[in-house]
Design brief:
Layout (H helix, E strand, L loop, with lengths): L1 E5 L4 H12 L3 E6 L18 E5 L5 H10 L2 E4 L6 H6 L1 H22 L3 E6 L27 H21 L3 E6 L2 E2 L10 H10 L4 E4 L5 E3 L1 E2 H8 L12 E4 L4 E3 H12 L5 E4 L1 H5 L14 H7 L7 H19 L1
Parallel strand pairs: 1-2, 1-4, 2-3, 4-5, 5-6, 6-11, 7-10, 8-13
Antiparallel strand pairs: 9-12
Helix pairs in contact: 1-7, 2-4, 4-5, 6-8, 6-11, 8-11
The chain binds nicotinamide-adenine-dinucleotide.
């Protein structure tokens, strides 16, 4: 089985590459290294059945032969992270919309099954937690470009499902909720790596808003267990699945847990969204998935408790910081 992973030098993609290789598969990664890093693929590069291609998913001539050679496509390449989306809205939309268009057209031409990585952001302002896959998507006005990420992913979903509807291309959409684990970088506004880095440096943990907003964080290893078999499951084709943990934690409690795990002297510091992002940003108070649909189809549910996941992040970042000193 030969898999093509777009965005495979990123946080989730590099774990997926390792898992597929460990199962005896061949893997090709295409990544433009905009947020990904080659060091994430250090272990994957040790396999003779691994290939890395530096390139963009927007480049049809680069993508086509890679899709043709693959048996399955995992499309993870995207402009990710709240900070990046607010700062580079054109790039976000072009990568996420045009890139996905190129991938789906190539997959359709060679009839390859596709996993499309979407996001819990598509539920937008909906407050009816836990979110079921058929819940409404509710967005704010175009005056707030934070919605451009969610809308670009919604277009990806519609396009993927349209290919399935019109041509029976096996496309499956996974809406990922907050994923954490080793290799996630805090550079683009991700909360857990940012808190851990600050805690390890005994610097203040900057909490956006009042910290009462809750999230569900899932270990990347659990996420991979869900993603890897999905595009090959005929009953998943043309379907959308939430993928994430259901244990909710407030950002305040998250900060406390990280302070305790790192034995840190850091204080919690509250900053407004305007201060943090240079403009007001609408945040969601709760974002919890209903994962019954995926569980019913595959039996999947996350196995790694949040504390263990946080411990893994702390260990990884401690080692990384020691190396760079
Ligand atoms: N991490 C999360 O909590 C989370 C939550 C919801 C959805 N997702 C989705 O999962 C996927 C992977 O996210 P991640 O957390 O691993 O982020 P990441 O930034 O680590 O990975 C994205 C990868 O895509 C690459 N990339 C970006 N634009 C590209 C382009 N035009 N061509 C080729 N490669 C390109 C980046 O260099 C990076 O390696 C994304 O589609 C993201 O939207 C992630």
């Amino acid at each position: 089985m030969h898999a093509l992973i777009t965005g495979g030098a990123g946080f989730i993609g590099s774990h997926l590459a390792e898992s597929l290789l460990a199962d005896g598969g061949a893997v090709t990664v295409i990544d433009d290294l905009s947020t990904g890093r080659l060091t994430n693929l250090a272990d994957a590069q040790k396999h003779s059945s691994f290939q890395f291609v530096r390139g963009t998913v927007r480049d049809e001539s680069a993508v086509r032969p890679l899709v043709e050679r693959a048996d399955v496509v995992y499309h993870l390449a995207a402009a990710v992270g709240v900070r990046r989306i607010v700062e580079a809205p054109v790039e976000t939309m072009e990568t996420n919309i045009q890139g996905t268009g190129v991938i789906l057209a190539a997959a359709n031409r060679f009839r390859r099954p596709v996993f499309l990585a979407s996001t819990s952001e598509v539920y937008g302002r909906n407050t009816a937690v836990p979110f079921r896959e058929d819940a409404d998507m509710i967005f704010g006005s175009v005056g707030y470009n934070r919605w451009s990420y969610a809308c670009s992913k919604v277009i990806d979903e519609f396009l993927g499902l349209a290919y399935h509807q019109e041509t029976q291309l096996p496309v499956v959409v996974g809406r990922l909720f907050n994923v954490i684990g080793p290799r996630q970088t805090g550079a683009y506004g991700m909360v857990v790596p940012n808190f851990v880095r600050s805690a390890l440096r005994n610097e203040p943990l900057r909490i956006h808003g009042d910290g009462r907003q809750t999230r569900c964080f899932c270990h990347v290893r659990d996420i991979i267990q869900a993603i890897q078999p999905l595009p090959l499951n005929p009953r998943a084709a043309g379907e959308v699945f939430n993928i994430g943990a259901t244990e909710e934690i407030s950002i305040n409690a998250l900060a406390d847990a990280i302070l305790e795990l790192t034995d840190s002297r850091s204080a919690k510091e509250y900053v407004s969204y305007e201060e943090a992002f240079g403009r007001p940003l609408e945040d969601m108070m709760r974002r919890r998935p209903d994962t019954a649909k995926l569980h019913a189809l595959t039996g999947w549910s996350p196995q790694i408790p949040l504390r263990d996941a946080l411990r893994d992040v702390v260990e990884f970042m401690r080692a990384e910081m020691n190396e760079s000193e």
